[in-house]
Design a protein that fits this description.
mainly beta, globular, disordered N terminus, 43% strand
């Protein structure tokens, strides 16, 4: 075989360019057109994502979207993650940069969730080989430098029969540059109109080609600076700009002493007053806006945590990619690539809301000692009945920050070649892949619980007038303990307060360091070719073997493992698994060039996977293509898929979580209130109220626990399984040159979904189903009755099913006024429902058209991207529009704010979704880029994403965000400039 390197590259570029146009902001792309296919047949056979069989036809039975290098260079989004997240078929990103409250090993990464089915159900490939995964199964696309990308192919169909686990919702194949000749340098800078969130990117690509091979290298630097919630009106307040004083938290930086009701309840020190006299404390203003008397609430004695919280977290990365190809002879080639990537990220949220009653690993926490010098009702200042007290204090002086760093090395190498048997040529390849990813996380801003207990323990005023831990008879050296007065508010120095007290800050706050490492090793061998002739062409086949090993660990800081820090406690995760896989694929061209059958072909694939964890599985796929006439293609697929349990699913050490749940014994919202089991477990069952954050009665049916629960792993999990179907049309009418239209129906159903067992389900099983085994997983406070500890794991339960349509239209029109190109791609989702329990009678939750549903981010019914490009001579421009359809969310309050509740009597089939709702209108963001090609072989571009500075509505349910806004929406007008120099 003679390797046609340049022709193959040109064939791919030409075929895809003819059928695609530049998308600004919409990551626009399209499938290759019929004319492009004919050109490709004269050049070489290529492998298209979704098949291992090389073919000359770029149209396949399954829909494949291609984003070319030209598409990438003609838009304002500059990272691989942003480009992919703006595809209409991609849903809400997991652990997005708009969610600084996220925790764990994946923080700082960027992930892709096709069909909104979850990032772990989308397989990411680099040059047809797996990208490394975390112990939780996440694949971080931020590691891939944009400068190294030649094109991205997105398979919008299941492909476990071709690629194995995780390819349920689709496959993203990032194909890197190779055989590059010359050098290119790029510089990019942009920022929001508010002057923040600056993005700087610079890259350099250098390539050499020769008679026997090529070498291509790309280096990239990217830095995106933070945007704070307080710097946007829509995110500056907990419940948006329309309610700036509502929803502030009572656990504030002003300090609160929790006294018994007889002594005045929760109280706050008056400004500038003597802390030693309890008379100087006023009753805390607890009005957060929950009553008709004052629905707007009050900020007095409370915190607005948004002021210290990131709206968009910063990230900085450095990447190097090298690709080498060497033709050993005409029949044998060596190919290798190396990727190095280093990423630094950061997230910041408000200082910790310390509540002594729930601090520490033991339910009940601790209290400030009656012998503390700073206790106004203790033994030091003449109070009649000295007592220990609980307290609240948000440590506003020290915001909580996480600084995750990720370092990735990836090496792939292989031999490929061919041999002839008779007149037939067979292609083969063997390869090795190694991917290593190391993460470290530095956390600062959480309190050491044991030291905090000592700091509010016994203390006295020593002879030097300094408050010291211990007692006069048994003092503790100041080097070993620093007393704390949590009632001194933020901004006031002295008297044992936290502000300006470096010794106290150093004593209470310790830097926590967690680390992790994952390794992926793959050995593979493949053989492809044709066996014999059929009426429509040669019967093609591909067979192969793959051995893969995944190893991973994530070790939290020792303080987190022991629960001696206010950070969420978690145990170490460590484990591995191996899988051996065999696959076979057939391409069966049955008919060709006949009336009513210009082409009729079938494809069949099957993959056998043998895991050392759960056993084996077989997954099959069937597809067809039928062209009744030259201009019309009918295509369809049926596929089985699976997702194997991850290392974290099977071997995770677990972690603390502040879950949302409904206590069935609650006398207002509980379904089991008053039954015998509730009465047996709760002393005050007749008046029992579930407590939420702040240890106050729950104001709704899905309230957040005031104490951390514990979520762990389950070694008995089995794989998720899926069935997917597609059926579509591709039309390229001869009477309208340059027009291509496609419409594909798709459906995916996933069963045995791996979901977290929920506190609500456990409690319902105990109190409603009388399942004694389920009652053993939690305990209650013996006095107040609230659930003070609960352990739950992941389980296989329920299903998720999604269905919809993908539409794409492309039109190219050359005129005397320039060349115009239109690209329009839309995804219309008709169904997205999920069931997360094993109950035979419970109904699924519906996600389409909802901003959120309990525990899940909703799915837009319509996402649509369009772009119109124009080019004449050295000048070109692109206008893009990104459309998100309307959604509904739970009303903020149907009673208090009826103007924001257009359907207060909404009823859903599932009672969990029956609640007053408010419709939020659709949103469209417009993008513009103008380019000029200079005489010195450079291109200068100016552009703006969200050029009209559109802001979406307040979304109080916070989908994909930690503020009252939709995390997928733009946060302002982003203006940028680009310069590219070619050498």
């Amino acid at each position: 075989m003679t390797f046609k390197t340049t022709k193959l590259r040109d064939a791919i570029t030409f075929a895809l360019a003819v059928g695609s146009t530049a998308l600004a902001g919409a990551a626009g792309a399209q499938e290759a057109s019929a004319p492009a296919q004919k050109e490709a047949t004269t050049l070489d056979r290529i492998e298209v994502t979704g098949s291992r069989i090389r073919q000359v036809d770029l149209e396949t039975a399954q829909p494949v979207l291609s984003i070319t290098r030209a598409d990438i260079e003609k838009q304002g989004f500059q990272s691989v993650a942003e480009i992919l997240q703006n595809i209409s078929a991609v849903g809400a990103p997991a652990i997005s940069r708009a969610q600084p409250l996220s925790a764990g090993e994946n923080v700082g990464g960027q992930f892709i969730s096709m069909r909104n089915l979850g990032a772990t159900r989308t397989l990411i490939l680099v040059n047809g080989k797996r990208l490394g995964i975390s112990t939780s199964g996440f694949q971080d696309v931020s590691l891939i430098p944009t400068a190294a990308v030649e094109r991205i192919e997105v398979l919008k169909d299941g492909a476990s029969s071709i690629y194995g686990s995780d390819a349920i919702a689709g496959v993203v194949n990032i194909i890197t540059r190779t055989n590059f000749e010359g050098a290119t340098a790029n510089a990019y800078y942009g920022q929001y109109s508010q002057g923040d969130g600056a993005t700087t990117r610079a890259d350099f690509v250098l390539g050499f080609t020769g008679d026997r091979g090529s070498l291509t290298a790309a280096v990239e630097y990217r830095k995106e600076e933070a945007v704070f919630s307080g710097d946007r009106e829509f995110s500056a307040y907990p419940q948006g700009g329309m309610h700036p004083t509502r929803g502030w938290t009572t656990v504030s930086q002003w300090g609160v002493i929790n006294l018994p009701t007889a002594l005045g309840g929760n109280r706050v020190l008056n400004a500038g007053a003597d802390f030693r006299n309890i008379a100087n404390y006023h009753a805390q203003n607890a009005n957060t806006g929950g009553t008709a008397a004052d629905p707007n609430g009050s900020p007095i004695d409370k915190s607005n945590t948004n002021l210290q919280t990131h709206l968009r977290t910063p990230v900085e990365s450095r990447s190097l990619f090298v690709n080498g190809v060497f033709d050993i002879n005409d029949k044998l080639r060596f190919r290798s690539d190396i990727l190095y990537s280093s990423r630094d990220a950061e997230r910041q949220v408000a200082g910790y809301p310390f509540q002594s009653a729930s601090a520490g690993p033991i339910p009940g926490g601790f209290r400030m000692s009656r012998d503390s010098y700073y206790n106004p009702v203790g033994t030091k200042h003449g109070f009649a009945t000295p007592q220990d007290v609980n307290f609240w204090r948000r440590t506003w002086e020290i915001p909580r920050t996480d600084k995750p760093t990720s370092t990735t090395w990836r090496f792939a190498a292989g031999l490929e070649g061919n041999f002839d048997i008779g007149e037939r040529t067979f292609d083969w390849d063997v390869g090795y892949l190694y991917n290593n990813n190391k993460v470290t996380q530095e956390n600062y801003g959480n309190l050491n619980i044991e030291r905090t207990k000592q700091a509010v323990g016994p203390s006295f005023l020593n002879a030097n007038g300094v408050v010291q831990c211990g007692s006069a008879a048994s003092p503790i050296p100041l080097t070993q303990c620093v007393p704390w007065n949590p009632f001194i508010p933020y901004g006031r120095t002295g008297d044992g307060g936290l502000t300006g007290n470096q010794a106290l800050q150093d004593y209470l706050f310790q830097r926590l360091n967690s680390s992790g490492e994952t390794e992926t090793s793959v050995y593979s061998a493949n053989l492809a070719g044709s066996l014999f002739a059929l009426p429509g062409g040669d019967l093609g086949f591909a067979v192969g073997y793959e051995h893969r090993k995944e190893e991973g660990r994530f070790i939290p800081d020792a303080q987190a493992v022991t629960g001696n820090s206010t950070t969420l406690a978690g145990g170490p995760t460590q484990g591995s698994y191996k899988v051996d896989e065999f696959f076979v694929e057939l391409a069966i061209p049955l008919l060709a060039d006949l009336p009513g059958a210009k082409e009729l072909s079938f494809s069949v694939a099957s993959r056998y996977s043998d895991y050392d964890t759960f056993g084996d599985t077989v997954n099959n796929k069937f597809g067809f293509k039928w062209k009744p006439i030259d201009s019309l293609l009918v295509r369809g697929t049926w596929a089985e898929g699976f997702r194997a349990p991850t290392i974290n699913d099977l071997y995770g050490g677990g972690s603390q979580t502040f879950s949302f749940f409904t206590d069935p014994c609650d006398t207002t919202f509980g379904a089991a209130r008053g039954n015998a089991r509730c009465s047996a477990d709760i002393v005050n069952a007749a008046t029992f109220r579930q407590l939420q954050q702040g240890f106050v009665p729950a104001t709704g049916s899905n309230a957040q626990t005031p104490v951390a629960f514990f979520s762990g792993s389950n070694p008995n999990l089995i794989p998720e399984t899926s069935e997917s179907k597609t059926l579509g049309l591709v039309w390229s009418p001869g009477f309208v040159e340059g027009l291509n239209v496609s419409l594909d129906w798709w459906t995916i159903k996933i069963e045995d979904t791996i979901v977290a067992d929920t506190p609500t389900q456990m409690l319902n099983d105990c109190y409603l189903q009388n399942d004694a085994a389920r009652c053993a997983g939690f305990t209650r406070d013996p006095v107040l009755g609230y659930v003070n500890s609960l352990n739950f794991t992941s389980i296989n339960a329920g299903y998720r099913e999604a269905e919809g349509y993908d539409f794409e239209l492309n039109y190219r029109l050359p005129t005397q006024y320039g060349n115009f190109a239109l690209n329009w791609q839309s995804t219309y989702t008709t169904k997205d429902e999920i069931k997360t329990d094993t109950g035979a009678t419970t109904l699924p939750q519906q996600l389409v058209g909802y901003a959120t549903s309990p525990g899940f981010t909703g799915t837009f019914r319509v996402r649509s991207n369009a772009s119109l490009s124009w080019e004449k001579g050295p000048v070109s421009a692109t206008w893009g529009a990104r459309y998100y359809s309307s959604m509904k969310e739970t009303c903020l309050s149907a009673t208090l704010f009826p103007s924001e509740c257009d359907n207060p009597t909404f009823r859903a089939a599932n009672a969990a979704q029956t609640r007053p709702t408010n419709k939020l209108g659709s949103n469209t963001f417009h993008d513009l880029e103008v380019r000029f090609a200079t005489p010195w072989n450079a291109t200068v571009a100016l552009g703006a994403n969200n050029v009209f500075d559109h802001v979406g509505p307040s979304v109080y349910s916070q989908p994909s965000a930690n503020v009252s806004y939709q995390g997928q929406f733009d946060i302002g007008r982003f203006v940028y400039m680009k310069y590219q120099q070619r050498f």
